[in-house]
## 1
Amino acid sequence: MNEREALAAIAADLPSAGDDCAVVGDRVLTTDMLHETTDFPDGVTRYTAGWRAVGASLSDVAAMGADAEAAVAVYAAPEFDPDALRGFIRGAREVCEAVDGEYVGGDLDDHDEFTVSTTALGATADPVLRSGASPGEAVCVTGSLGRTAAALRWFDRGDAERGNELFRFTPRVGAGVALRPYATAMMDSSDGLARSLHQLSEASDCGFAVESDSLPVDEAVRETSDGGREARERALFVGEDFELVFTLPESALDAAREASPTPLARVGTTTDDGVELDGDPLADRGYGH
Amino acid sequence: MNEREALAAIAADLPSAGDDCAVVGDRVLTTDMLHETTDFPDGVTRYTAGWRAVGASLSDVAAMGADAEAAVAVYAAPEFDPDALRGFIRGAREVCEAVDGEYVGGDLDDHDEFTVSTTALGATADPVLRSGASPGEAVCVTGSLGRTAAALRWFDRGDAERGNELFRFTPRVGAGVALRPYATAMMDSSDGLARSLHQLSEASDCGFAVESDSLPVDEAVRETSDGGREARERALFVGEDFELVFTLPESALDAAREASPTPLARVGTTTDDGVELDGDPLADRGYGH
């Protein structure tokens, strides 16, 4: 049983799970674990690892439309090099500062594989869930897609500097808060746009129709792809770009664009059912790397 | 550099760390990681693992004198057996319910070694820190010491049922909240009483003088020890009993006993400096197993 099947099997045991964060009164809480073999390719610095790991949890806070309050992390490694550890903490602190949150520490643990678990706490009395979309709305994405896909290729090619730069991202907390009054459903694109659309479709019980020409494919992924088609595929399926994917009434789109500190791309509309790209079914898969 | 030296090296980078929880406004937040090789001996069920891992974080909330609000966990394993996962979730949920908190879910992660990271959120506007003790106060411990030491021996001997039973503990949230008006410094005994006293001594800049006859050594550890001296050693150094260790004015002791739902043992007094047992220096070590 893989992770996804297991999550489905236990859904009934955990009715409060299934969104980017758990809602606890007027707070939202989320936790993640990242580790070397699957999340930190050769060349990722500990500074970038701290930034990215804590950023992934802050992105979940953003996806609820919540303000970022604080984050903690467990740094687990076979040895504790003080410079590496300081780099990690600096990355963790800076990504928190980038979204007006506070990095408040955590714990160390002896572990064979470099592993990081992060937790973020956010505040909102009115979180945006994945379940509020209905047919006939606009579907939008913040920023651009494919930065992580590009980073992975740079790491593969041994250009760690470009890889690290692309691997650090600004969690869309500012956009999430700005979009809260308008968005009917929202999540982050941590598993790729394709997976996100399927997850929103399932949670909201409506369909999604997306046009490939409207996808905000990042220049960095074009630059590292063999043509526009491959770039688009990677932007759709690789994921981990930590952009916000959300729906809102067409009539609210102008106001949302005005309010959001991050550019928004309108990529399609919600429909009665199915998830389609240019009229064809869009595969429900992610983690293309 | 080991975990402890590394923590000391980075203390300046993280001034907000160093207590059982980080304080974030009127909330407290704490995170931990436990894993199979060091924390879950052969025979520990997933139900017990869920209970204990989440309980360890709730114990940190208790140590701040905070109410328990919610907990989340990441369950990382090489495979996801639904029964094992359900057992874990049931343990996590039940330990939360035992302290009037809510288990609100978490995440799954593919990992070679069974690893759990847990986070707990608590609420108090007036947390009890480790730093408030001064000479001439009473030193107390909730409940009893040595349950974990006894559990480890039962696991060693192949009696997993007794091991599991002793491995599940009730986090002292009720006692922590009740003691909040009286305690001047408090922490949990996760690294053993000896380590806890040294940590309180360092944080509060005062000494501790403890009498061995007054230690609340659990019957379970006596039963699995070769005489009273060994039982006492194991109660002092093995740790992970998750009891509260705290100081308070002698004049507040009766009121604190009255308020606390858990029995309190007065084990000694605070002094000007040094950490002593029966007048001799007490070793600053923990993790005896």
Note: The longest strand of chain B covers residues 67-77.
## 2
Amino acid sequence: MLENYALSKVPERTKKPRQTGFTMVMDKGSSLREAADLIETCGEYVDIIKLGWATSYVFPKLKEKIDLYQSAGIPVYLGGTLFEAFVIRDQFEDYRKVLDKYGLKYAEVSDGSITLDHDRKCEYIRQLSGQVTVLSEVGSKDAAKIIPPYKWIEQMQTELDAGAWKVIGEAREGGNVGLFRDSGEVRQGLVEEILTKIPFERIIWEAPQKTQQVWFIKLLGANVNLGNIAPQEVIPLETIRLGLRGDTFDHFLSQF
Amino acid sequence: MLENYALSKVPERTKKPRQTGFTMVMDKGSSLREAADLIETCGEYVDIIKLGWATSYVFPKLKEKIDLYQSAGIPVYLGGTLFEAFVIRDQFEDYRKVLDKYGLKYAEVSDGSITLDHDRKCEYIRQLSGQVTVLSEVGSKDAAKIIPPYKWIEQMQTELDAGAWKVIGEAREGGNVGLFRDSGEVRQGLVEEILTKIPFERIIWEAPQKTQQVWFIKLLGANVNLGNIAPQEVIPLETIRLGLRGDTFDHFLSQF
Amino acid sequence: MLENYALSKVPERTKKPRQTGFTMVMDKGSSLREAADLIETCGEYVDIIKLGWATSYVFPKLKEKIDLYQSAGIPVYLGGTLFEAFVIRDQFEDYRKVLDKYGLKYAEVSDGSITLDHDRKCEYIRQLSGQVTVLSEVGSKDAAKIIPPYKWIEQMQTELDAGAWKVIGEAREGGNVGLFRDSGEVRQGLVEEILTKIPFERIIWEAPQKTQQVWFIKLLGANVNLGNIAPQEVIPLETIRLGLRGDTFDHFLSQF
């Protein structure tokens, strides 16, 4: 238990290694010192780090940062946009070498910025899952591409069948596409329909904005899997999960 | 004087320990290193630190952080939501022990997330003011609960009478409730009416957004008490107080 | 080359010292440690640092911070609002001494918050360019002051003629005035008309918001000069310049 003092009626959180209650944090260029701070301050609450999109291409001291996180027991993976950048350039084999070069044990397969035949996407998942643990992402970064719910479900299911460990519901850093409307509002019907078919422990919901985090936690509980959390929002997110911020204060109390 | 070079026609700022011109900073999970940076960079400008809502429950190295701030001469208190979390669980005595355990000299009494009979709220203020210096907060975190001005005044006055050192006008981290409309706009009539009855040195106005800070500074001068300031906004806020940012540049010059 | 691995079809970036592809970063009160982090993490990508508006007046350890950046080969200048604060107080000679005292090699001349006869503005540029390298800024911080395109061009040209090294298109920290509408949207016609007359390497476009950076990069390429970039956005900006973030992913690929 990490709690600093005793409070009754606080929902129980899962412990590491978590299958649910999972927090994926997006690092979009943190310094080594900021990474060390995150480990010290939030290490227990961070389940995996994504080096956002292709920031790993330009970040100096990349190897040091990956090693720093991984030696603290926090796995790291490279954003899906980077996978796509390699694929669209016919450099998939180079991508596999990058994963090995940096000692990465996780990878993301996505098609948010490219058009990828879904069978081919599943083939990439199959191939990569022989090398690393695969997270696959469903949903476009293009606000104009609206995918109907039955298709979200079909894609999530076939990607899990192809070997994905978990599927990610796309939202971008800004939280305004995919699962969300332009305004940042959650597409509630979509989420509810997905949950009738896909087990909730297999899904990571990207929810960078506080209102989105609150929405998922109210719907699915303290131990929903959430992603694209900014480093400085990890501590606040824990309090939302525990009903100890105004937004979910009543919600959890009424359950005891 | 901390100013690095001489400029004429700059409003005079109060010095520590301040009764007016007070800046309350919200720490919502800063690392120890960030806390040390704040002390080094803004120590002279920060009058008190609030560990936002219940972030202290989950923050590791809590004792070290509190000691770090306090040994630099900056008092620390725990967010009002935490007080409310203890009260609603009938754990008020436990809360008092937490204050002692961490060597805290200040505490907040609020009812932003719970319904608390106002006499009982004043009783808590009375009890706690025998142990620590009390800040009490008026205003709901619930955007739907509109409190009329005469009631703000009545509550502020009775809370000061009950022993509160200062009263805080609620705005949350986002600055969109209490003193502010949904849009973040200030409820100007409310503020002006409050000021006809309550001395301005006894009030801390929560003003997390720049436009709100500017509004209060233009209305009440360089040395208005402001709260919920993010650590990275302390230096910018000082320049706004001094008429050295575009927003208040003309306002202060025209007074010389 | 700083890239961590090989990717084909990535636009070529200019190298330091850059005349184009220039990134100006706004420091509005970073701690010494954050400044050191920026140098370590983004040193290759940061061409110049602006200490925003008059933050240098209140920032402790100012000399240390300027020396830290400059000894890493990154020049520093003080925000234009500070120049204006000295000028309006008839303290221009004091301003020149401040530049010398801190060993600054660059300065900004602007009239965003004061009304300055344009001939007098050019005279300041002439005088200061005998002492340091001058950046001059065109555009008002006042959202109500709309300057027509022909006047932007005329002012930019005469300021370059007076000795300015580069001219800056004003946007403030928030990106909602000058080049931009209230909403943050770019005044496209204005930018296009300016570019028919002023060479693009002589202009730094203030573009603090991501959508603005994307807009300029799509219009003017990877190596457009951009300013008012927040320290934590330098790495993300590099990926946008290189077509390695969703926003410009297709744009650059279609050019190969």
Note: The longest strand of chain B covers residues 133-138.
## 3
Amino acid sequence: MSPKPLDYETLNENVKKVAYAVRGELYLRASELQKEGKKIIFTNVGNPHALGQKPLTFPRQVVALCQAPFLLDDPNVGILFPADAIARAKHYLSLTSGGLGAYSDSRGLPGIRKEVAEFIERRDGYPSDPELIYLTDGASKGVMQILNTLIRNEKDGILVPVPQYPLYSAAISLFAARMKGITVRAMVIINPGNPTGQCLSEANLNELLKFCFQENLVLLADEVYQQNIYQDERPFISARKILLDMGPPIGKEVQLVSFHTVSKGYWGECGQRGGYFEMTNIPAKTVDEIYKVASVSLSPNVPGQIFMGLMVNPPKPGDISYLRFVAESKAILESLKRRAHIMTDGFNSCRNVVCNFTEGAMYSFPQIRLPPRAIEAAKSAGKAPDVFYCLKLLEATGISTVPGSGFGQKEGVFHLRTTILPAEEDMPAIMTSFKKFNDEFMEQYEDYRGYSRM
Amino acid sequence: MSPKPLDYETLNENVKKVAYAVRGELYLRASELQKEGKKIIFTNVGNPHALGQKPLTFPRQVVALCQAPFLLDDPNVGILFPADAIARAKHYLSLTSGGLGAYSDSRGLPGIRKEVAEFIERRDGYPSDPELIYLTDGASKGVMQILNTLIRNEKDGILVPVPQYPLYSAAISLFAARMKGITVRAMVIINPGNPTGQCLSEANLNELLKFCFQENLVLLADEVYQQNIYQDERPFISARKILLDMGPPIGKEVQLVSFHTVSKGYWGECGQRGGYFEMTNIPAKTVDEIYKVASVSLSPNVPGQIFMGLMVNPPKPGDISYLRFVAESKAILESLKRRAHIMTDGFNSCRNVVCNFTEGAMYSFPQIRLPPRAIEAAKSAGKAPDVFYCLKLLEATGISTVPGSGFGQKEGVFHLRTTILPAEEDMPAIMTSFKKFNDEFMEQYEDYRGYSRM
């Protein structure tokens, strides 16, 4: 009998080609071990609340009230909710046409797109047009929309940094079958960087934009970690600010799409799926095409849109909730900074491990210098060397990481990616457990000469 | 200078080809008129809350508490929330790993997928496996996922009913460039029907499944209106129940994917973007591929998942909120039924308009018998005849409908689609305004012989 349409052999080949390491072999094995009762520390995904981070109070109060608008008429509402949360809930409900249960415009609620534009203007010092801002179900949905608009066939390619976040390689394989003989259409930057945690300087961004101008590339700026900065030397600077600083011709010519989300920052509201993208120097006809395709999915989820509004327009000095909001925000960001240090220092104390400091974002990407005998052992086990190491780490310690090969790495060089998100009080024990595993692993696979002298 | 990558001329041609009538020319014109201050009655999208339908209280209480979990520790929570909503919020939070702010598994929360499986088993009388149920951001996202898995290249096609909901034609143009010389891979049914409002009988479903078996097609069953039934003669029966009733070979062989949502039913929670699809007779390797691709978007929004849990597991007799929940549900469904009658009767009272009763779903699809002179006038205006009629209707009355051509219709026959969702108290005035416009339009364009005699 011939295969049926949803039998594996007859599926879309581009779907089969998708590889997505963040939820790949390591994640699946970790999920199995968890089912068997092993305690797993999931550092594979930047998912702060899953590791115990508490949500910020004010935005949750506002969205809860938007979900239960009948409370706004209840004389007792003030017992559980502060007046500024009540006022803000009324404000957001007034921006909807029918509350959270109504589809919004496919680009998102106009009033929230206006708040995003005002935020961008305050951040960059240049006006921003709400009509060029589209709200999305998290940044990844926006990236997929733009890549789908850009990639015409299997001969179109996108330059992505190596190492890169595998959303990009996955989406590209989904839309483009083959990456040889290609027309390069766009360049992706992730700033602050995932998985490397670096922040791009003004000079870096200048060079990148010049390159896009010379090579006629769209710049896709993944700036979802713009709030996650753990040092003062390299603050976050948006690609858009540098582009507009450059003036014509580059500032008027280079096409830029910038992405943001409520999932990262210190909010970490991953499960809410809120995000936006902003388009700079994109012609109106293209903006309309993107609108049309967004319409097929009707509307991004409305609660996620309200989280985005709250993120770009948080409580202000003098508001009842201001001090609490600032205290909660500061506590999270300062703890993340301390955790970045504990993790980097911890990795650097391990045999054959070197690690740059996490300047921004929420990841650590140590290089693991695997001895030749470990590489041979991996080969015998039919695994890539970094996958072999990460699986052993998982089995020994419960620490679930992502092998560097999922992000791309130099030939013969091996990394892993962890988040810096485990609870601060758990961090020393995790790093001790990591060191014990790593140093024993190195002991086991190093020969007498010692790998470090090679 | 050569065009830039996001200039219209160089975009993905499949994106340009997408047509989506529900938010097409009519919707854009209606939005413009609204901006100019005209009162618009948006009956183009099934968006009940936008037309004044109030959300059901119990699910909103539960989700509000899940958004504000700190309220669960507040001794005053009982002043604003009933005990069963509090208990249910605790239940759903216990199914998450980190509350609403954490990404869930890419297939959705296992505990909610279990509640969906139990609902399907109660409905159909056959067990359902939670591992074959994937939660999605509304049904349309699930449809896109499955079509993307199925359609391999421009030679693959999908049979869709005519008239059809344009999500299907839009998604197909997105994934497949051309619809000639095609391998048909799947058949779509929408039951209860959109836009026609018909309910399929057991005999219809039997025939359709036999056809899928003979022709080796996947059946994609869009059953998002399964709660929206306005008569007793043809209750909703799921494609899955009939398939399993048929037994082998058909019951074991035909591949079926069924879609559901929280956006429709009498809940109408469109803005929350909750949905699921269930796979029957789909091989495990394919299920894994769909999981992998879903992982690229990380996770469906978690509040939407909880709405889905609540929809399949509503308050039970004896629960504190039961009577209120039932009363609210009944009021909405009975009003929808009355509105279906008002609308059908209203259309049938108009000159040159005939309309079937809306047995289910939330649409009315009257046939408008346009006189030849109206068709000529449309031609002179460069419009399709039904678009011409609908635009005139919009300008004259503010009623925003969708021309039948967006759904497909027989050559030379013209329809429009409206929802039955305007508030019941507004319905008589809307139908009076429609009749006045229609009858004057017919008067203007009919010649002396009278079109009805042709």
Note: Residues 322-348 of chain B form the longest helix (27 residues).
